[in-house]
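User: quick one, fold this
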Amino acid sequence: MRHADIIARLTLEQKCVLLQGAKPFGTWPLDRAGVPQMEFSDGPSGVRHQAGEHADHLGLSGSEPATCFPTAVTMANTWDEELEERVGAAMGQEAAVQKVGTLLAPGLCIKRNPLCGRNFEYFSEDPLVSGKMAAAFVRGVQSNGIAACPKHFAVNSQETRRQASDSVLDERTLREIYLAGFETVVRESAPQTIMTSYNLVNGTYANENKHLLKDILRDEWGFDGAVVTDWGGSNDHAAGVAAGSTFEMPAPGLGEARQLIEAVRSGRLAEKDVDERVDEAIELVLATRAGLEAAPAAFDAEAHHALAREAAAEGCVLLKNEGGLLPLAPRTRVALIGDFAKTPRYQGAGSSAVNSTRVDSLLDLVGETELELAGYEPGFERHGGENRAKLDAALDLARHADVVLLALGLDEIAETEGAERRTMALNANQVELVRAVAQVNPRVTVLLSAGSVVESGWMADVPAVLYCALGGQAGAGGALDVVCGRVCPSGKLTETWPRRLADVPSSASYPAEGLRAEYREGLYVGYRYFQTANVPVAFPFGFGLSYTNFAYSDLKATDHGATFTVTNTGSCAGAEVAQLYVAKPEHEVFRPEQELRGFARVELAPGESRTVEIELDERAFSYFNVATGRWEIEGGIYEIRVGASSEDIRLVAEVELAGTGAPDPYEGVDVTPYETADVTDVDDAHFSALLGRPVPDDAPRIEPNMCFRDLNYGRSAILWAVWLVLRSRVRAMERSGVSDINTLFIWNMPLRAMGIMTGGITDKGVVDALLREVRGFGWGGAVLLVLALALGWGPLVGCLLWLAWIVVPLVGAALLNLVRNAALARKL
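Assistant:
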C-alpha cells in the first residue's frame, strides 16, 4: 500500500467516511490525518464547476465561467489525437485554476443506437476510435497534474431507466465492443480514476460487479487508481467496496458509512478491502495537490476560445458539395436563414452543460468574413410548429441572395441527458423550409447542428451540407472558416448514418422500457452490422469530403503493421484520415465483415506525398473466445484494407497468420443469426445460445430498485398521485422543448437512490419505510379513517389518523437516521 502509514492511524469509522463524498462534488477531508478535501467537476466538453456550498450534480446551481469546447462527437470527427490532447490540456488547466482535482471526463460509451439522448457526449460506435481519442484527452488533462475520469464503465447505452436497467449481453460482445475502448484508455493513458455506470451488467450493478472491476479492470488491465460511482449510482456500498469501487458519490450522508462499518463488523466485508480502497482514495487526493497548488491564477480565455474554434472547424464533416458550391468566394451575397444562426445549438443538455465564457453565432461573425450579408431570417420555430410569416420572410430573403446559408439542427430537448430522442428526424418545419427555400434559390448550403445522426432524405434538395455536430462556444466561427475556405474540411464521421431508424438492428427494442436492455444484436453495432448484413446507408462510417483529393498507393503489409503512400492530388492543402480495416473473408468463427484496427491523419500540401505507417499487434486479428476465456487468433488469410472510409477501400493486401489453435467456441451451438448478421429480430432461443444461459425474466417487482416511473405498479394511492405529477411534468417538458434534467432524473431514479441523494437526511431505513407504502401499507390508514367515522370522531380526525399512519414510519426512520449519524460524527 502507498499510504500504509496514514491508514494505520485511522479508525474504522474514519476509513469508511473517506470512501464517500462530503458534499455534492467534494471528498471527505480528514485534516488531522493530512488528507484534505478534493473537488470533482463535470467536464466532457468544459469544466462545470459549481463553487460554494450550493453545488448539485443536476445543474440547479450556476457554475463558474469556462470554455465550452466542442462535444465528444465533434472532437471524434477530427480523428486528431494531437488536437484532442491539446483540448484536454486546456480543459485540465481550467479545472486546476478552479481548484478541481478530478475532471469527470471523457465519456466513451459506445453509440449503439442513434436515439440515445447522450450520444453527443460519446465519441463513436467504434471502440478503437473511442479509446484512442479518450486516451489523448486523458493525457492532456493529466498533464496539468490533476486527474481525468473516463466514464461510464460499462455497457451504458441508454438513458431510459438508466439507474436500474440491466444490460444483458454475451461475454464476447462485452469484451470486443463495450470494454475495448476502456482497455485502450487504461493502457495508453493511465487515468487516475474511472467512473462506473448506473446500470447493471448481466444482473449485477456495474459498481459492485467483481468481474468488471476486479477481474478485468484491476487484475487484467492493471488499473490501480480510484473507482468513482456515477452520482447516485451506488446500490450496495459494501458490495461495491469489496468489488473494487472506491468513492460513493455525491454526498450520501453518514448512513452509508454506517453500513460499511456494520458490514466489516459482521464479517460481510473484509477490512483489508476497505484499506485498499482508502489507499486509492488518499492517493488520488494527495497526488492531485501539487497540480492544484502549481496552477495559475487564471487561464487565457482568448487562447482557449481560439483553440475551441480550431477544434470546431476540424470537426466539421462535409457531407455533400455538388458542383463545388463550397468554399464560397469572397463577396458572395448570402442569406442567413435559420433560428440556429442567431441562437446556436452548440452543446448538449444535462450535467455536461457549460457556463461558457462567450458564445459566437453565425449572425455575429458573418460580418467578419469577406461574404456580403443580404439579411437574416429565423425561418422556423425552434421547437417545431408552423409559422407561415417566418417561412414567407425567409423565402423572400432567399430570392435576393447568391447563396443561402441555412442553419438547421436538433433543438435542446431532442438531445439531453436523462431521456432518449423520440425520432431520428429533424422537426418537420425545418424540412419544409429546406424544400421551400431550394425552390426559390437552389444554391443552398445547410449548416447542420446535431449531436448524432439525423434522417437525410431532405439533403436531396440541396447541393451542400456541412455537418457541424455540436461545435462548442466557438462553433460558429469554425463553421464559417470551413465555408469560406480558410480551413479545408477534413472531418470524418465516427458513426454510421443509416437511411432510416428501422435499419438499425437494435431499433425494434430501443430504448428498453422494461427492466432489461438486451443486446441481441451482439457484435453487430454500427458499420459492423451494416456492412456484414449488406444494408445500404446514407453515409458510411469514416466518410467525409474535402476541398481537395487524395490518392492511395504502395500498400505493404505484415502481421505487425502496414505502410502505404497518400498523395494530395488536388489544388489546396488538406488533411486525409486514412483508415485501416482488418477482414477475414474465410472464417470459422463468426465475425463482422471488417473492423477498424488503425488510422492516421495526414496533412499534405498540393502534390505532396507521404508514407504512412500504421502498427498492428495481435489484438488486431484476435477475437474473444468464450470457451477458453482468452483472446485467440483464428489461423488463415487476413485482408488488410486501407481506405478513405469503411466503404471507400482503396488498397488491399493479404497476410497469413498461424493462429492460436483454439477450439471454435460455438461448436454445436446454434448461433445462426450471428453467422449471417441477421440480427434485427433475434429470438429467445438464439440469444440464449449466444449468452450461454437462459434469457433473464423481465417481470417488474416492488423492491428498492423500483423506479419512480413505475410507481403506478404499486399499491399506494398517494404514490399514484406522485407518479401522475411526474408523468405530467415529463410530458409538459416534451411539449415545451425545454429540457428539465431534474424531473428526468427523478422519473428514472430508483427508490433506493433517495438514501444517497438527500445529503444524509434519509438512509436505507427511510427507503424501507417508503417501500412499505408502495406495497400498500397506507391502506391500513383507510381502515383507521373508516373506524373514526364509525365511532363518530369525524372526518378530520380520521384523515389525521390516516396521514399519521403513513407519515410516522417515514419520519421515525428519518429521525433515527439523524440520531445515528450524530453518534458517528462524534467519533470522527
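User: anything notable?
Assistant: Residues 795-827 form the longest helix (33 residues).
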